[in-house]
Amino acid sequence: MTGAKTAEVSANPTGKAASSAPAHARPRAVGPRRSRLRYAGTVALFLLPSAIPLTLFTLIPMAGSLWTSLHEWNLITPMRWVGLDNYVELLGEDRTLAAFGHTLYFIAGYLPLVYAGGFGLALLLNRAMRGRNVLRAIYFLPVVTSWVVVALMWKWLLNPASGVVNWLIGLVGLEGPGWWTDPNWAMPSIILASAWKDLGFVMIILLAGLQAIPQEYRDAARVDGATGFKSFRYITLPLLSPSTFFVVVISLINGFQVFDQVHVMTGGGPAGATTVVVEQIYDLTFRYGRAGAASALSWLLFAVILIVTLIQIRAQRRWVNYG
Amino acid sequence: MGKVLRAIPVLLGALVMLFPFAWTVVTSLTPDGALLVSPPDFTPEGAGLDAYRRLLEAMPFWRIVFNSAWLAVASTVLQLVTSSMAAYAFARLPFPGRNALFAVYLATLMVPMQVLVVPLFLEMRAFNLVDTYFAVLAPTVASAFGVFLLRQAIAQVPREFDEAAVLDGAGHPRVFAFVILPLIRPALATFAIFGFIASWNAYLWPLVIIRSPEFMTIPLGLASLHGQFTTEWNVVMAGSVVSVVPILILYLFAQKHVIASVAQSGLK
Q1: What angle do the packed helices B113-126 and A60-69 form, to 10 degrees?
Q2: CATH class belonging to B60-265
Q3: What's the whole-model pTM score?
Q4: Where in this chain does the record put each ABC transmembrane type-1 domain (chain B) (predicted)?
Q5: Residue-range domain boundaries for chain A
Q6: Of residues A92, A258, A143, the one with CA closest to residue B247
Q7: Which A residues 61-120 touch B at CB under 8 Å?
Q8: Domains of chain B: which residue ranges?
Q9: Is domain A87-319 in CATH 3.90.180.10, yes or no?
Q10: Residue of A nearest to B117 (CA)
């Protein structure tokens, strides 16, 4: 889910807590050598169960990925050192540009849709309403459903000939498109399914943000004559900006890493119309046997995500209000 | 009046959220003949469980459900153990280089699975572990996210609690197990829910490392089912129903807690 990214984003404001261990906890570390050894053993006992797997299955593969990205390798014959050739080649390949283009297309459709929808719902559900908790639970249901199931559901709903969606479109007298079978409509199909799945997540985050705004602020604004739109513009929006920031950062990271729904709904097709970056990484490795290029592309993607996220963290000072 | 106007879009939206699930169930009960018809048949004649029967014939489905379940439980439990222990060390055991080590833990969070997939696959292949439970499980047994989350929780426990236990002669393992862990139960529950859902729904890594049906997890099984039965949507939807039901039950029980945890994550 979105868990891993949660920490990534919130690491910043709370990171300073790392050094807050008071000095009085230290005495255990000094004393005779024997007890110092024992203390070191205790620390190791607590750390090794996570340090060993993280080293084996995250740090070593990271290093391996960098190393592989500097080689030409089809996974079978020995590696051949090519230096930065993979990166240079990738940057010159139309397919790479197309993959980033498709990813950006996905983000450009998905982010506004999921944000506008989630925000609208959060505003509507922010007032007292009977059955609000049930509604919240319903909207959140797709969030806990697996991507594969969601992708299959929507592939069926968007079936061009016998799907429910085209039948509904037919009811109002229009002819529905070919959805995932049509290169022009395949990406919109994926965007639709993705927005449907993540709407509840965005709504919950923004709703929590809205409910954290003290009612006194709105009351005070009302006393000063600000109601309706004015109160929304000058009270709600600025005070909601931390939640908005969180949603945008997470959605962008998820958007750049989009894969599951694409792989299931279209496999990157038709005619390569939905080959997003991660799909391209997958194809490079397992279809074209270019493990070196695939590793290089994954680092390019990582670099892009990192830069985009850093820019947002930088830019947040200008628009995010931490009160 | 305003209340009614507000309720309309919200209820319509709820319908849009629920309909795909309902349609999945209806399709799973539809016989082949009534499947690819236009207009869609909402009350198909001869509805029955035939698609479920074929689902069970097409693949070792219960085995696949079992795989997903035990892998999700194992991954969640192991993550809870390894992460809470590391979190304790980072919150309560001062040692030289602690902050630097914590930074390394946090850095691993920044690396997306996509970067790791290829080298991890090669590493597993080098040790002849492709297509094994171990290979699916191993990369998920430690979670830097969990360490981070639980360290925050432990840092909020007043030190007087541990000190009282230490005065009673308890060592760190006992303070950890009997004082700290019970006090951070809410954070442990939050993390367990995230971990379980993430493992239950994981697709990319199992897709890369698993080949044979008997080691598949549900998302993989469903995707391969879709490859086999490209037009028999009733079988595919039957598989979807079976795979959604367990997580749905879990969700219904933990619903309030799940939503509260997610809401909390956006508030810091």
Answers
A1: 90
A2: mainly alpha
A3: 0.85
A4: 65-254
A5: 23-69, 87-319
A6: A143
A7: 61-62, 64-65, 68, 75, 117, 120
A8: 1-48, 60-265
A9: no
A10: A61
